[in-house]
Structure prediction request, 264 residues.
Amino acid sequence: MQKEHNLSKNQKIIFDLIDKSGGPMKAYSILFNVQKKGIKAPLQVYRALDKLVEIGKIHKIESRNAFIACQNSSCQVSKATAFSICESCENVSEISNSKLSKYLSNFSDNSGMKYNKYNLEFFGLCKKCKSK
Amino acid sequence: MQKEHNLSKNQKIIFDLIDKSGGPMKAYSILFNVQKKGIKAPLQVYRALDKLVEIGKIHKIESRNAFIACQNSSCQVSKATAFSICESCENVSEISNSKLSKYLSNFSDNSGMKYNKYNLEFFGLCKKCKSK
DNA sequence: TAACGTTATGTAATAATATAACATTTATAA
DNA sequence: TTATAAATGTTATATTATTACATAACGTTA
Ligand SMILES: [Zn+2]
Ligand SMILES: [Zn+2]
Ligand SMILES: [Zn+2]
Ligand SMILES: [Zn+2]
Prediction:
């Protein structure tokens, strides 16, 4: 069961933009695209992004400083994320693999750390880029 | 067998600083610390960092925009990295777990992606911070 | 050594990413 | 309603990273 979050005005504008784009978007590119809707300052964008990340509607691709809509309907919070990133065309997709997520969610070692979140980024070449 | 890289002057200064610090360091903190050694501009730092990452002497902690000396003598290149990060004290350590690295290095799915690199960051509370 | 290509350095300017501080408004719920 | 939390608006600024161009040092081979 996914909690329904009523997005605020700015949050909705920004989520819709990212979601429709189908890929990762950078904060200032988002800003540029929503200026016609009245969102004029970086902070307005970053605040909405923070909230959307917090509730799991989007995730941050750390290695790219970019944000992508969650492609996995069950992500309630951004606490167990895995992505595949093509280093040639920069296509990004969220990996949804229950064996992988189980393995990582259950991971523990003898360091004494109590893990409660992870983010994994795989890099390589996508199908298209491989064949070039 | 690890290839011996002869570090250049700036690379050596910057690697030694990071290595001695024992933890992650940020680029501008590095810059501040090496100014007395004649490294005066951000670009000099970033160029050395790029090279050190490339040859696996340091790794970038993407979620923190920080750089840490490789704690795993066998990392020749930064292509299979895993870290544990305490969200309270920001202590970072490199995870060296052969089962984990085998599992991730062999990971593949039906997306058609050919993976050749990954970076994994675990977040949680370290021993000390848990007991506070 | 001399010539060549590669790697590293120096320097200035600027781009890209992100947050601080403060005032105000809107939504939520007791 | 009234209190509280959440979201917004705005300006300024901090932090992280790259472009562009010139010069120097290094490694290889003729
Ligand atoms: Zn997701
Ligand atoms: Zn591709
Ligand atoms: Zn390493
Ligand atoms: Zn800690």
About this structure: The two ends of chain B are 43 Å apart (CA to CA).
